Amino acid sequence: MIAKLAWRNIWFKPLNTILSIILLMSSVAIITVLILLEKQFEEKFNSNIDGVDLVMGAQGSPLQLILSSVYQVDAPTGNISYDSAKVWMKNPFVEKAIPLAFGDNYRGYKILGTTPDYLKKYGAKISNGKIFENNFEVVVGNDIAKKLNINVGDTFFGSHGDAAEGEVHENESYKVVGIAEKTGKVVDNLIVCNIPSVWQMHGSHEEHNHEQVGENPKHGEEGHVHDDHEADLTIDEPGMEITAVLLKFRNKMGIVTWPRIIAQNTKMQVASPAIEVNRLFKLFGIGINALQYLAYGIMLISGISIFIALFNTLKERKFEFALLRVSGAGRFKLLSLVMIESLLLCIVGYIFGTILGRIALLLLSNSAEDDFKMSFNPYDFIWDKEGILFLLTIFVGIIAALIPAIKAYNLNISKTLANG
Amino acid sequence: MISTKNITFQYPKGELFHMPDLYCTAGSTILITGNSGRGKTTYLHILAGLLRPKSGEIEIDSTNIVSLSERKNDAFRGKNIGVVFQKPYFIASLSILENLEMTSWLATGKKDSATAKKLLNQLGLSEHISKLPSQLSVGQQQRVSIARALINEPKVLLADEPTSSLDDKNAEIVIDLLTSLSREYKAALIIVTHDSRIKEKFHNQITMI
User: What ipTM score was computed for the predicted complex, to two decimals?
Assistant: First the structure.
């Protein structure tokens, strides 16, 4: 009954109530989005660097190298000579080296030349069909297969570079031989083939080399004459170029020493995904912190708004309180009535905030999906952090109601009624 | 029934009031009259257990309420004392029926909707039960106050200037209802008033001087 009365009371002044709830809802929504984003972002980033100690690629920004070769979100830094990369890949320190050659795209999805080890590293088993063996056979990531409705046996033409509008390579078509299982990692949004496919698609290696010098990502407007009668290239073809190599070390010393050794001795660089991702998080962290302060600020304001609303109505409600006391309610019932009113506001605000936050994340996820092939799960619940947020909301409610509740508790009924 | 003995009361640093003894049986009525400032309302609040007297005894149905703890006093008042105030006070967010239900719940822990409806019916308010208090006229509100004061079938019904804000017709209705219902519900009715319209109706009067 007291809870019911509290509920009726808060809706008796709907404007005050809605203001308080909207403020609380906004702060809870912002914090919820941040909590979910931060966790899922880190999870996504960290799960993709599992098993990659260093990445070797062309000189340039190390962050760009990591973003392009590990996360497939940026343009590559350039190409490296596969022959000189091989020297390092065979180093005894190295446990596993996975070469990557970026090629074309199909409707905006990257076609990546690599070895079957790449799929294995991400734990992407073939759910349907088989792994690629011959040139121009591709395994399609799970998300792409679903979105574009691709099945084993389909064929398609790639467009050059990483823009869906790029020149279409119509001389050779890719043949889908397998669909990968869903992994929740970058592979889901990749089309994977062997490296020679990428080489062959871009013509014989002579002209390839010729136009590749220093301007790989841009090549392709002209001079792209493909020789259909050319024999299939193999991975052992000399003088070819690749984009990057993912390295896993047997000896951890390599992780520490290689960045300098490679920088001094070759035209390549190696970058550590862990360090670069950490740097990235620090950059994000500033933004996230700023948003967090803003959200807590709004929560503080909502607390003040609840306090003012309760305090203001005390004067007109003191007769109600006196009446309740006359009808047999003890002091404590009045205290709890005021408390419950505040807590109801907070709980409603929290519930709406959590829902709103997830709707926001869903929208965010859709746009991130379009731009970065990265999606967030709005139905994820992070019990500990969201639990703390809930307790914080409750705490705000209790603090806001404290003074009004004590005033109600200490109300002098006789005086109130006599002076009425 | 209610009886008092040797009640004195003093506000902090105020003058000492000697309250007249009274004795009122179930179903009968006592009028407490006197000019303003003589402590009429104070006496009523003491009788209701809202103020604690400096000394003396108040016996309601063989319980001396002066000796009760504050919590027991609240509970006792809820069950055994009904109060009608000068101005009709309500819980603004609850409907007429819910106001009455709340009163019965606070005293007994149960919502006595049946009695509430019966009382509202007797008071001619049955078509207003789902209205908010603010939608009723003052006269109607005062009648609801009577219903609320009676819903727990109290031993004592206290009325503090119940007619002062009413016109002649409504004052007449309210007084008639108070006396007839207190008789029906076997409550001792004590009315504090300086309203001459009432004074002529009752013989049993205590004047505070």
Answer: 0.91
Q: What are phi and psi of A368, to 5 degrees?
A: -65, -35
**Mean pLDDT of all residues belonging to chain A:** 86
Please give the average per-residue pLDDT across A312-330, as a whole number: 90
H-helix or E-strand spanning residue B6: strand B2-10
Residues of B with CB under 8 A from a CB of A: 41-42, 45, 48, 50-51, 70-71, 74-75, 77-79, 83, 85-87, 89-94, 98, 102-103, 105-107, 111, 148, 160
Q: Which of left, alpha, beta for A185 (phi over 0: left; psi -120 to 50: alpha)?
A: beta
The whole-angstrom separation of Cα A344 and Cα A21 is: 10
pLDDT tens sequence across B7-21: 999 888 888 888 999
Give the separation between CA A114 and CA A245, rounded to whole angstroms: 9
Given A5, A322, A331, which is nearest B102 (Cβ)? A5
Report the residue of B45, B71, B74 to disrupt the A interface, i.e. the one with the largest count of A CBs within 10 Å: B74
pLDDT, average across residues A333-354: 94
- B74, A330 in Cβ contact below 8 A? yes
Q: Are the C-beta atoms of residues B158 and B121 closer than 8 Å to each other?
A: no
* Distance, CA of B20 to CA of B29 (rounded, Å): 16
Fill in the amino acid letter for A161: G
- Using CA atoms, how far residue A25 sits from A301, A341, A349, B198, in Å, is 12, 16, 5, 57
